[in-house]
Amino acid sequence: MSACLLGKKVRYDGGSLSVNNQVLERWISEGRIVSVCPEVEAGMSIPRKPAEIVDGSGNRVLDGKTDVVEKGGNMVSDGFIAGASVALELCKKFNIEIAILAESSPSCGSSLIYDGSFSGHRIPGMGVTAALLRRHGIQVFNQYEIADANKAIHATSA
Ligand code: SF4
């Protein structure tokens, strides 16, 4: 699960996102949650400059067809791919089949991402970590889809 959704202050602006959800609280109390911030795992600072994927989404970054760019123009694709790889290794280590990642992030977004213009406009697409996990068969949900993730857990364990 994205660390920022668990209240960890790892976002680019030094903040976190809070999720109040009884199912999530149960998972935490059962010790079933593995937390990761791909960007911090890749060595990025807190805070850090905002970054967006230009011209496409996470799959195109993984394929080397476009880049993640910081506000100001610095290309940071390598760090985003490295962070995604850390998340994937954690999934393999703990046999994780389901991820809940923060929507709209250039790493963690699974349905929507910002369009690369730094104007606050979002488009359909995935971040780099969400794309890499999905390529390896991991089901990715966002923080608004915890009920769906719970159903998927029961389906995979049935
Ligand atoms: S990379 Fe993911 S976990 Fe880290 S702050 Fe961004 S959305 Fe949260």
TrEMBL record:
- InterPro entries noted in UniProt: 2-thiour_desulf
Q: Which domain of life is it from?
A: Bacteria
Q: Name one Pfam family in it.
A: 2-thiour_desulf
User: What name goes with this protein?
Assistant: DUF523 domain-containing protein
Per the UniProt record, the source organism is: Tichowtungia aerotolerans
